[in-house]
Amino acid sequence: MGQMDRDSMPSFSPHSLEQLAGRVLIGGFGGTSLDDELLSQIAMGQLGGLILFSRNLENPRQSKHLCETALAAAGEKPFWLAVDQEGGRVQRVNHRIGASSVPPMAQCAQEGEWKVRAASRVMACELSALGFNLNFAPVLDVHSRAENPVIGERAFSNEPSVVAQMGLAFAEEHLRLGMGVCGKHFPGHGDTLQDSHLSLPYLSHSRERLDALELQPFRAAIAAGFPMMMSAHIVMQSLDEKPATLSARILRELLREELGFEGVVVSDDLEMKGISAHWPVEEAAVMALEAGVDLLLVCGEQQLWRKVQQRLVQEGERRSRFVDRLLEATQRLDACYAQLTEQRASWIAKAEHRATSRHADTLLRVSHTAHADALSRSEARGCEWCAKD
User: Fold this and answer.
1) pLDDT tens across 268-288, in order?
2) How far is Cα of residue 21 from the mean position of the Cα atoms in its chain?
3) The predicted structure's pLDDT at residue 183
4) Tens digits of per-residue pLDDT, 161-191?
5) Quick count: other Cβ atoms within 10 Å of Cβ 105?
6) In Å, what is the CA distance from 383 to each residue of 35, 78, 123, 179, 379?
7) Mean of the per-residue pLDDT values for the chain?
């Protein structure tokens, strides 16, 4: 591309461009506390959020302090504190720090919608008590291939209608408490023979098959108003030869234009081998944003997502259209954050918040059993900490 005219250059200071580039990033980090450099970057609005893993969480009090410190540094600016908390083997906030042990969603779904709702409410309550505001769940993949090495019991069912029903129930309970949700992994990871953490899966299913199976739960979630969808690092060959995360045909033409999704599109972790084995992570970040991703996940160490941020700044300095794309993404993120903040404020205003506040105190003192009791009941009454209206 040739040199741009001065009039076509983006009218942003380098500082503003760094903020835009950071706002579309959720990063991971090592350790159990935030260093001064990271706190400074958060305070300057140069990072959209953090994703926490078990490596970051020692105990309830430390976990809550970590979240509170990050949010205090962000001040009034939108800031995501995210986690993968699906139940089963994907529980970053687990019994080790006093949280409930939630069964896999496949097991919950077999017992009925009441169990999925109870499990969702338990997780949302405990995440909220610690300071999280976004859970990258539920899984909306249909577990249509038993040999699939990565989805398995993370999925609700091998029936798309059941996945849709249970996924919406899960999301409804989270959103009632103002906890963000993100359906994953669009357009469907349930039939692969490869794990996209380790390689790039390919699927050759026809569009008719996708409409009949993989896309059904996502259609239902979109109709129900899901705020976020996560892309899959898989190639759907009937749609595009690019992975979904990097495909405008899949994210713009299918997800947005055809299916009508208006929320935030999140990438799966760009460090996964499904992407990073084929493209440098910082180049994949540019490609993903251009394809229609609004929020990039780079879940490893700070050094890599800072490198991604620098690459986004460079692209913004070079192309005004890329700055427009960053602006579009941040506006969508702001709207989503504001909506969830309003939902959380509404929940706090209700009497049930007082019960959840008692739960937060309990979680910070000892590992309690009330939620475990709720999960073993035969009807969706919830526990004393999460009493329904």
Assistant:
1) 999 999 999 999 999 999 999
2) 18
3) 98
4) 999 999 999 999 999 999 999 999 999 999 9
5) 29
6) 37, 31, 12, 18, 11
7) 88
The answer to whether the beta carbons of residues 295 and 333 sit under 8 Å apart is yes
What band does 13 get if pLDDT is binned at 50, 70 and 90? low
Half-sphere exposure (Cβ direction) of 164: Cα atoms closer than 13 Å: 17
User: Residue type at 309?
Assistant: Q
- Assess whether 84 carries a catalytic annotation: no
pTM of the entire predicted model: 0.89
Tell me, what DSSP letter sits at residue 139? B
Residue 38 in tokens = 């990271």
Residue 139 tokens read as 């899984």
Q: How is residue 318 written in tokens?
A: 């070079």
Q: Based on the residue annotation, tell me whether 211 is a catalytic residue of this protein.
A: no
Q: Which of 240, 268, 269, 294 is catalytic?
A: 268
State residue 95's pLDDT score: 87
Position 38 pLDDT exceeds 60: yes
Length of the chain: 389
Residue 314: what residue type? Q
- CB under 8 Å to 369, separation ≥6 — which residues? none
Tokens of 364: 């910070």
> Annotated catalytic residue: which of 65, 195, 197, 353?
197
Which among 155, 263, 273 has a CA at the least distance from the CA of 214? 155
